[in-house]
């Protein structure tokens, strides 16, 4: 079973709510820019420089270990601006975490393939107003 978690931030606690899920796909545009596709995709003032520190801290607190990190596209010499896949594992679960990744802007083949394999989706911070 695979769950897609969009806008995951560093919310590793979600894995405890779904103990039978063996693989999670986390996707976030951070640390590059939380407004990445809306207003200013190349603006550095919105970068979250400490995001990876928070991710690594949350992973450790939830018994996950970073086992690999791979840059998927290179836009800049500033590492945090480039879409990157980080893989975390615990004893029973794996998280494929796509950071600085935007569905429309980056068009990542690896991510698109994984999305097709997902059994469900979680969207953090999403709301819809019905009129």
Tell me the fraction of residues in β-strands, as a range: 25-35%
Cα end-to-end separation? 35 Å
Number of helices: 4
Number of domains: 1
The helix content is 10-25%
Helix-strand topology string = EHEHEEEHHE
Determine the structural class based on helices, strands and strand pairing: alpha/beta
Reported for the largest beta sheet, the result is: 6 strands, mixed
What is the residue-averaged pLDDT?
85
Residue windows where pLDDT falls under 50 for at least 5 positions: 127-131
Give me the Rg, rounded.
14 Å
Q: How many strands appear in the DSSP assignment?
A: 6
Strand numbers in spatial order across the main sheet: 3-4-5-2-1-6
Question: What brief labels describe this structure?
Answer:
single chain, 131 residues, 25% strand, six-stranded mixed sheet, alpha/beta, disordered C terminus
Overview of this protein structure:
With 131 residues, this protein is an alpha/beta fold. The chain is built from 4 helices and 6 strands, in the order E-H-E-H-E-E-E-H-H-E. Residues 127-131 have low confidence and may be disordered.
């Amino acid at each position: 079973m695979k769950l897609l978690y969009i806008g995951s931030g560093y919310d590793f606690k979600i894995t405890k709510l779904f103990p039978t899920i063996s693989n999670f796909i986390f996707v976030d545009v951070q640390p590059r820019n939380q407004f990445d596709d809306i207003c200013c995709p190349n603006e550095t003032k919105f970068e979250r420089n400490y995001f990876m520190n928070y991710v690594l801290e949350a992973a450790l607190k939830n018994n996950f270990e970073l086992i690999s990190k791979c840059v998927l596209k290179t836009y800049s010499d500033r590492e945090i601006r480039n879409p990157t896949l980080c893989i975390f594992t615990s004893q029973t679960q794996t998280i494929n975490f796509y950071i600085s990744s935007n569905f429309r802007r980056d068009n990542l083949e690896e991510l698109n393939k994984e999305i097709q394999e997902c059994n469900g989706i979680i969207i953090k911070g999403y709301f819809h107003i019905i009129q």
